[in-house]
Design goal:
The protein contains 14 helices and no strands. It has 3 domains: 1-99, no CATH class; 113-186, no CATH class; 187-290, no CATH class. The radius of gyration is 23 Å and the shape is elongated. Helices cover 58% and strands 0% of the residues. It starts with a helix and ends in a 35-residue tail after the last helix. By secondary structure, it is mostly helical.
C-alpha cells in the first residue's frame, strides 16, 4: 500500500517531493525520530498499514530530522481527525515531515482557518488543496502568509468590512497573496489602504467589488503600487493637475501605475521601445461581488469532531 501512496503523492504537481537541499542540517537523532514515527503509526489502526510499510515510512521520516517525527504526527493527526482519507493524510504527513517547521506550521494554521466551522467552514477538499498551495508553493516568498490570509479573509467576511461570502473571500484572499508572493513585506495593510481610498466618496467612490479588485491589482505590481496609484489619481482629478473626471482619472492612474511598475525591471531600451502604448501585464483578479446563493455556508461540521477542531 505504501508504494501506491508514495507514487500517487509524488505525481501530484503541487505536492512534488521536496528539494533535499532544504532539509535541515542540524544535529539530530535519527533513531529517536524513527522510533517516534513508528510508534505513532502503530497507534493508527485506521490507516491499516502493514508492519513492513510502517517501518519503511518511519525510515523515510527519520531522514529529515530534526523534528521530522513531530511534523509527521502534527499533520497526520490534524488531517485524520478532520476526516481526510487515510491515504491522503499519510501522504501529506510524509510530505511535511520533509519540510522545515515553519512550512508545516503554516499548513496547519491555514488548514484550520479554511476548514474549521467557526472560521471559513470550507469543504475538506477545498481547504486541503488551498492550504497546500499557500503553505508549500509560497515557501520562502511572502512572509507571514497565514497571518496575511487571516487578515484578508477576516476583513472580507466581516459585516464591518466587505460582508462577503466565506468561499469567495477565501479564493479572493488566496489570489491577492499569490499575486504579491515576491514582495518581502506583507500585503494586507497596503491592499486595505488602497481599498479604503477607492471605496471612499472622498477618493474614487467605487463599489465594494470594484474597489477590492482594483486595489488587488495595483498592490500586486509592487510595494509602492497602492501609494503610487493614489498619488496619480489625486493629481488627475485636481484643478492644478489634469482636471479629469472620475472615470478617466481611474483609467489614467491604472494605466500609468500598473504599466510603470509592471515594467520596472525591464531594461531602459525595452521600456523605451514599449512606449506609452505598453499594456499592463498584471492579471486582473475577478470581481468579488457575490449573489445571495453563493453566500450559503459549506456543510456544517461539529467543532467537537476532534481535538484539532
Amino acid at each position: 500500500m505504501i508504494l501506491v501512496v508514495l507514487a500517487a503523492f509524488a505525481a501530484h504537481s503541487s505536492l512534488a517531493a521536496p528539494d533535499s537541499s532544504k532539509v535541515q542540517k542540524k544535529p539530530c537523532s535519527r533513531a529517536q525520530e524513527y522510533i517516534t514515527a513508528l510508534e505513532y503509526l502503530r497507534s493508527k489502526s485506521e490507516w491499516a498499514l502493514p508492519e513492513k510499510d510502517m517501518r519503511r515510512v518511519s525510515r523515510e521520516v527519520a531522514l529529515s530530522c530534526p523534528g521530522s517525527a513531530g511534523r509527521f504526527i502534527r499533520v497526520g493527526t490534524l488531517l485524520t481527525e478532520a476526516g481526510v482519507t487515510p491515504r491522503e493524510a499519510l501522504a501529506s504527513a510524509i510530505r511535511y515531515a520533509a519540510q522545515d517547521d515553519d512550512v508545516s506550521k503554516r499548513f496547519v494554521a491555514l488548514f484550520k482557518k479554511l476548514y474549521f466551522e467557526d472560521q471559513l467552514d470550507l469543504d475538506i477538499r477545498t481547504a486541503t488543496t488551498m492550504a497546500h498551495a499557500l503553505a508549500v508553493e509560497l515557501e520562502g516568498s511572502l512572509p507571514g502568509v497565514e497571518r496575511e490570509f487571516a487578515d484578508l479573509t477576516d476583513f472580507c467576511v466581516s459585516s464591518s468590512g466587505m460582508d462577503q461570502g466565506k468561499p469567495r473571500c477565501a479564493r479572493f484572499a488566496a489570489q491577492v497573496i499569490q499575486s504579491a508572493k515576491d514582495q518581502p513585506r506583507g500585503v494586507f495593510k497596503r491592499w486595505r489602504r488602497a481599498y479604503d481610498f477607492l471605496l471612499s466618496s472622498k477618493g474614487a467612490g467605487l463599489t465594494t467589488g470594484a474597489a477590492a479588485t482594483l486595489a488587488a491589482e495595483v498592490v500586486a505590481t509592487g510595494e509602492q503600487g497602492g501609494e503610487s496609484f493614489i498619488q496619480a489619481y489625486r493629481y488627475a482629478v485636481s484643478r492644478k493637475g489634469l482636471q479629469l473626471e472620475r472615470q478617466r482619472a481611474l483609467e489614467f492612474s491604472r494605466d500609468l501605475v500598473v504599466s510603470e511598475l509592471a515594467s520596472s525591471e525591464a531594461s531602459p531600451g525595452d521600456a523605451r521601445a514599449a512606449g506609452e502604448n505598453r499594456k499592463p501585464t498584471v492579471k486582473r483578479l475577478p470581481d468579488i461581488t457575490v449573489s445571495a446563493a453563493s453566500r450559503a455556508p459549506a456543510q456544517s461540521r461539529s467543532a467537537a469532531s476532534g481535538s484539532t477542531r
